[in-house]
Amino acid sequence: QVQLVESGGGLAQPGGSLRLSCAASGLTFSFYNMNWYRQAPGKQRELVAVFFSGGKIVYADSVKGRFTISRDNAKKTLYLQMTDLQPADTATYYCAAGINGYDTDHWGQGTQVTVSS
Question: Which helix (H) or strand (E) holds 47?
Fold first, then answer.
């Protein structure tokens, strides 16, 4: 059974930083393209960043230069380092895994990030 468990969310002040983690189990992690998505209240879920199994990384324009996605295949863990956080980054952040391109086959339960002074 595949499980993706996010952690590291919380409250941050504008300009602050948080680091999200996604621990995976039940899958051959290195084979999967790993994604971070987010969904703010009343808005559609949006792709934040993806780390393809082959090494390519793609970021949403809104987070380029502020967020860094990384993965540790040995630990089966995906990370999202978020810096210079802004209120617009407030959302539930989800980890997702997929095999083909931008497809997502498995999702985590999400972790809440709130940016507020």
Answer: strand 46-51
